[in-house]
Design goal:
The mean pLDDT is 94. By secondary structure, this protein is α/β, with parallel strands linked by helices. The protein is globular, with a radius of gyration of 25 Å. Helix content is 37%, strand content 22%. The longest helix is centred in the N-terminal third of the chain and has 22 residues, at 145-166. The strands form three sheets. Strands 1, 2, 3, 4, 5 and 6 form a six-stranded parallel beta sheet that branches. The relative contact order is 0.10. The chain contains 15 helices and 19 strands. The chain has two domains: 9-165, Rossmann fold; 167-477, L-fucose Isomerase, Chain A, domain 3, CATH 3.20.14.
């Protein structure tokens, strides 16, 4: 995947001066050895400086990990740890930070070999709060070398998303279509995330598109599209225009990302797009998203940001779908009820016109856009990608600012069922445990829009931690039946 960060976590061990420094040094060595044995050693850098209750040493360690190219930090409490130094380095470090701590090794060494990091972690968390420093602390942050190595490895995708957000440029072409207030939200929270936004008119985009007519690079992109679509290339006559549009977006990204390293796009796709450009942008959107440059539909800015987060976490293509329609009774009875344990209300169809990339569809065809063709000539609605989404595990999620500028999120794990949709667009039959209650008491109750991002796999744990880290005030999830929602009627 392109357009996502390469991560290197600096491992800094800390020690309090009334404890043997050798505890922190030896435990750090064991931690590094465990990581290199079980995970990719390129993820980490071992800082040789052992901080011993000294601000000077903290700054020395900070300088060392910066020189090593680290863009994330793990503060490892080899023993009780110095409250000031260990939180000062976290405060001064410009990037995502985690804390974890060493467990005691043996009952046979609980005098000089006892480190008390279990206690020190409490003081570290208190001091982080005093300084107003955000840090990822695992669910149970005290462990053996192998257990702490696993914690750090779980931090990798979380840190990749957090670092990516702080280096993200959101490029939008809008405003949102008429009668489409659902995806409208204040941009203040984008700046709070550390990202930037560049809002443009679709007229700016149209001008740039026209300037790309006849570009010598179009032929290569067109050939790549033909290879990507294969037998699904049902509208070959439109490929040259689609290739011209893709080139326009790619050049815009390079010319406009400025000081930021990564980009996502919130694109305009109706109502005037088709009549002026002469096609729909769905297939191009799918291609860029499939390579790691999320392009959301309908100028959905927070949808694009959500897609980018999922791309960083999964290191894979994502998609953005409407939480669209219920599963008909006869389809549920015939194809789902006896093959799975899902209730009818656990199921729904996720759909969008054609923005899901070819690698995430069971089969695909590039066609015309049926909904738009109801009101427009069919020839200007060509360029949508249709097919059933591949069956398998998924995570449905979204980060969203409310209309009054509060940051909220939701995460729900489920799957795409191996059930033919018998419909159109990029579409799948989804099943999420207790979806009916989640739909009512998270999505409706908290005014989430109908667009949800989809990551292909179960990534709820990492997504939940990212949303906590960036300051989401509430994080909804599909609670089990035994755990009622606050707004759920107990007499229903």
């Amino acid at each position: 995947m392109i357009n996502i960060p390469d991560l290197k976590i600096g491992i800094v061990a800390v020690s309090r001066d009334c404890f043997p420094a050798s505890l922190a040094v030896n435990r750090r060595k064991a931690l590094i050895d465990a990581y290199r044995k079980n995970y990719d050693e390129k993820d980490i850098y071992e800082c040789p400086v052992c901080i011993i209750e000294s601000e000077i040493q903290a700054m020395e360690a900070l300088e060392d990990i910066k020189k090593a190219g680290c863009n994330a930090l793990c503060v490892y409490l080899g023993n009780f740890g110095p409250e000031i130094s260990e939180t000062l380095i976290a405060e001064k470090f410009d990037g995502p930070v985690m804390f974890c701590a060493a467990a005691e090794e043996s009952q046979n060494d609980l005098i000089d070999g006892r480190g008390d990091a279990y206690c020190g972690m409490l003081n570290a968390s208190y001091n982080l709060h005093l300084r107003g420093v955000k840090a990822y602390i695992p669910e149970y942050p005290v462990g053996t070398a192998a257990e702490c190595a696993k914690m750090i490895n779980e931090f990798v995708p979380i840190a990749r998303a957090i670092y990516g957000l702080s280096n993200l440029k959101v490029i939008s072409f809008g405003p949102r279509p008429m009668n489409f207030l659902a995806c409208n939200a204040p941009i203040q929270q984008i700046y709070n995330l550390g990202a930037e936004i560049e809002e443009n008119s679709e007229l700016d985009l149209f001008e740039s598109f026209n300037k790309h007519a006849g570009d010598s690079r179009i032929a290569d992109i067109k050939a790549d599209m033909e290879k990507d679509l294969g037998a699904g290339n049902k509208k070959p006559e439109i490929l040259e225009k689609l290739a011209q549009y893709e080139l326009t977006l790619l050049d815009w990204i390079e010319e406009h990302k400025g000081s930021k390293k990564f980009v996502c796009i919130a694109g305009k796709c109706w109502p005037a797009f088709q009549t002026q450009f002469g096609f729909v942008p769905c297939y191009v959107n799918s291609r860029l998203t499939g390579r790691g440059i999320p392009v959301s539909c309908e100028v959905d800015i927070y949808g694009a940001i959500s897609e980018f987060i999922g791309t960083c976490i999964s290191n894979d293509a994502v998609t953005l779908l409407d939480i669209n329609n219920s599963v008909p009774d006869d389809m549920y009875e015939q194809s789902i009820k006896n093959q799975t344990s899902y209730k009818h209300t656990d199921t729904f169809m996720g759909f969008h016109c054609g923005n899901t990339c070819t690698s995430k569809l069971s089969s695909c065809e590039m066609k015309f856009q049926r909904i738009m063709a109801r009101n427009l000539p069919e020839e200007v609605t060509q360029g949508t990608l249709e097919g059933d989404i591949i069956p398998g595990d998924i995570t449905f999620y979204r980060l969203q600012s409310t209309s009054d500028n509060h940051l909220r999120a939701y995460v729900a794990q489920g799957e795409v069922l191996n059930t033919p949709t018998k419909s159109f667009g990029g579409i799948g039959v989804f099943a999420i445990p207790e979806m009916g209650r989640f739909y009512r008491h998270v999505l409706i109750q908290n005014n989430f829009p109908h667009h949800g991002a989809v990551a292909f796999g179960h990534f709820g744990k990492a997504l939940f931690e990212v949303f906590k880290y960036v300051g989401a005030e509430t994080i909804g999830y599909n609670q089990p039946a035994s755990l009622p929602y606050p707004t759920e009627n107990p007499f229903a």
